[in-house]
Amino acid sequence: MSQLLEILGTKYPIIQGPIGELNDPKMVAAVSEAGGFGMMALGFVQDPEKVKQMAAQVKELTDKPFGANLMIAMNPNNEAILEVLAEAGVKTVTTSAGSPKKIYPKIKELGMKALHVTLAAPLALKATDAGADAVVVSGTESGGLRTTGPESTNLILIPLVCDMVDVPVVAAGGIADRRGFQAALALGAQGVQIGTAFLAAEESPASQSWKESIVGCGDAGTTLLPLGGMAMRTIINPKMSELMASGADLTQEYNMGNAGKAWTTGNFDLFPAGAGQISALIKEIKPVKDIIEEIVS
Ligand SMILES: Cc1cc2nc3c(=O)[nH]c(=O)nc-3n(C[C@H](O)[C@H](O)[C@H](O)COP(=O)(O)O)c2cc1C
Description:
eight-stranded parallel beta sheet, binds flavin mononucleotide, 14 helices, TIM Barrel, 2 domains, single chain, alpha/beta
């Protein structure tokens, strides 16, 4: 058994990538039941009581291991949330969006394991120094929040980080099928974290229009939308395409505060649909079980 499978306690080294505020216990349980590591997205959930309820709901649906993602800089209640998770029997979490230094002592005190998500090689070393049991390395092709600076693709980043750290490496970004999974393993990763493909899955709580825009997205159909000090990978829609052609300052045109509303209503003029470059390879809305079974086939 690989070190990563020991950390996750799962059948397969496949982690559900957290997607902003998108949460549904049924989705988390579906990933875990299919042999992956279902994940509650707690980046924006500040109430420990709510976390307790969410974990209880997942546990009603599966007795398989599942975890949670904590966004370090976004949530002031992470320590209290970790205590609730430990009480609920969650053994492994992921951390992202912030320096791991402060939060890892609490994770260790509670006897939990944790993987830290990094977008660049030097940060992977900092994460292991801080006590991360594994690192999730996310190349520029990934969906989600990115930097506005230069970034590497996973083809470069995964082997680079594998050569630097002595903990398991998980590849995040650009993976939706067996080919991507095998490629990640060939680069030295022990497993994968999947965001966009699960976002478009049948059980995903994402709106139908969001899923359909992923399925309809072709080659070079996404871009990094600058949002002040950071960027988000989004699907280029007709309005965004016009703005880009006119040379408009996209930072002024879009407000990330509108993302939640846009993504639930399908009004992508308000804010474009968030998704990774892998959207180009996602051709249909499928059950989680079918996605995972194809990946490990
Ligand atoms: C719309 C969107 C929102 C995301 N939000 C988060 C988040 O809140 N926290 C986080 O750690 N990662 C977030 N991610 C990153 C995913 O968890 C995952 O690492 C990434 O999507 C992997 O790349 P892929 O989309 O190519 O599979 C987000 C990704 C997407 C597409």
